[in-house]
Amino acid sequence: MSPHRFYPCLLAFAxxxxxxxxxxxxxxxxxxxxxxxxxxxxxxxxxxxxxxxxVTPIAEDISLYNRSLTLTAAEGYAPVFGIGxxxxxxxxxxxxxxxxxxxxxxxxxxxxxxxNYNRTGTASYDFEGLTLTRAASNGANYIxxxxxxxxxNAKLYNNRLTGEPGFNRGLIQLASSSGGVLNxxxxxxxxxxxxxxxxxxxxxxxxxxxxxxxxxxxxxxxNEVRGEFNRGGIYISEGLFSSTASHFAARVYNxxxxxxxxxxxxxxxxxxxxxxxxxxxxxxxxxxxxxxxxGIVASQWAGGVGTSISGTIENNLIVAHNGxxxxxxxxxxxxxxxxxINASSNxxxxxxxxxxxxxxxxxxxxxxxxxxxxxxxxxxDNATLGFGLLLNLLPTDDADxxxxxxxxxxxxxxxxxxxxxxxxxxxxSANTVGGNVSRIDNPALNANASAALIxxxxxxxxxxxxxxxxxxxxxxxxxxxxxxxxxxxxxxxMPLGAHFDVLVPAGGGGxxxxxxxxxxxxxFATTFSDVSTNGLADRIVLVTQNWSAGVAxxxxxxxxxxxxxxxxxxxxxxxxxxxxxxxxxxxxxAQEPSPNAWRATAGAxxxxxxxxxxLDNTPCARPxxxxxxxxxxxxxxxxxxxxxxxxxxxxxxxIGVGEQFHVLVDPAQVFDCTDRIFADGFDG
Length: 684
Hints:
mainly beta; 18-stranded parallel sheet; 50 strands
């Protein structure tokens, strides 16, 4: 073991980013928020933030008329509106007054969230983390945003809707008309139709409807739509019920559309573009369509003239009866290539030269991720996808909210999901432990010296008994041919039964090894530089020490974490503020934030409850977590723990209120570990 080397603590806490704070009003609370929620809203000035802190269903209809404010859940609460109650956000048509409304983390049953704008100015509507479900036989549960005048900038992010759309409507409906401009981004929403009917009902999952000289840009990314939508799971329409031409752009990237039954003509369409007398500038890139009668359709409303649907349909994975269905008169300028089409037929002038036809090799058609032998792997056109994401300012994650470009080749897969990461559980047992070390035996790591694994201690791996509290700084190393995990406080033995969640990221951008050096160290931290993190304060960064990447025998018996500094770089820190040594190795994982890669904040002492639809009531989930440097020294460690249907991050000995962690959950891992016995799968 090399002796410890100490360096002056040159890194000032002034480099840490300042935490923004804003005055919030709690409802129920003090006046004017002591009565109804509507009275609270009416009694506060524009710009107010209202945090709802109640477990009692809210028996009110809420109207925000000509208002600008934020309405959200208070920390630790999940507010629910009573059955049939709704939220309406509207404006008058007088002048150019701007509006700015944010609504997040609220739940409705047989209720809707509706927003329109009738002024000549600009409205910004931000809807995030809303849950809308259906109990009765009605079509009242939807989110709708209308631009009837002026400009509306709308963001719909990570909302979940389950129900039955009305006639010629969608569960998410985005519309512009009468000269209004709607610039809408709909990312990572989950939309499910409850009815199993496959005929006679003209409905959509996500409907973008531009008519009567409306305009704008619609960006749909990472959404999952399930059920029988015979208009289309995702449906982009120009001129519905209007002969006045409209012109707009639609960017449809990395979405998943899964129909209920693709065996009949009533079995629905995955993605549809249809125009009347105007034009759609369309890009459908890296989407996955499964179980549908028609995969991607580009057509014209009956009676339309002069219609133009131009752009490109590329890198899509389609399992359907008909793959591509293009109306020649409307699609002369619509190209297609690099698609994988697993279909009986196509109705298109010609398929691009790089089209793959044949079995897609999916895990299940209801969970259409790729098997290891799928021809879609590494077969996408990187240039089209990469430039499309860049030019359209779209997220760089796939439909799972994980890295889009990864793997040895750096090439993307065809379809919405990117394969390559591996997750598993390692348990320190009598046949793996020697001293302070536990050897790992897993095909993803064996003889894989270049792996940059990430690990997180897991107290009970979701089991009702047998939990082991692991309270050590730890690291990984590679005594060929196996990787191992070890206690950095090497005099202490590895506890038998200690559990670890292990992520083996596929290579490529966002997964790398950093080695501290004299030039990278300042005090208790080392600075790393990578294109996946530089200048990107919002990145979700995970880190695990890698003893083999440094110098043999050099231990770092400190808990480690990360922070983003005033130098626009990310840093790995000894959280106990012990001087960082060199050369020490660290495995680093970094990606853009998404619903499955986020920053969690402690609202109570010594724990963070991880409220997440993939983690709740899922004991076999294997999340990853890395601590962020806070305002002072942290001498302890932490474990993940599953209790009473919830996952927690728990401190050893504590987590302070306001402390933060980066958290990642892999949907593919959750799917793999949960019961598939009732899945109805085929790969036609």
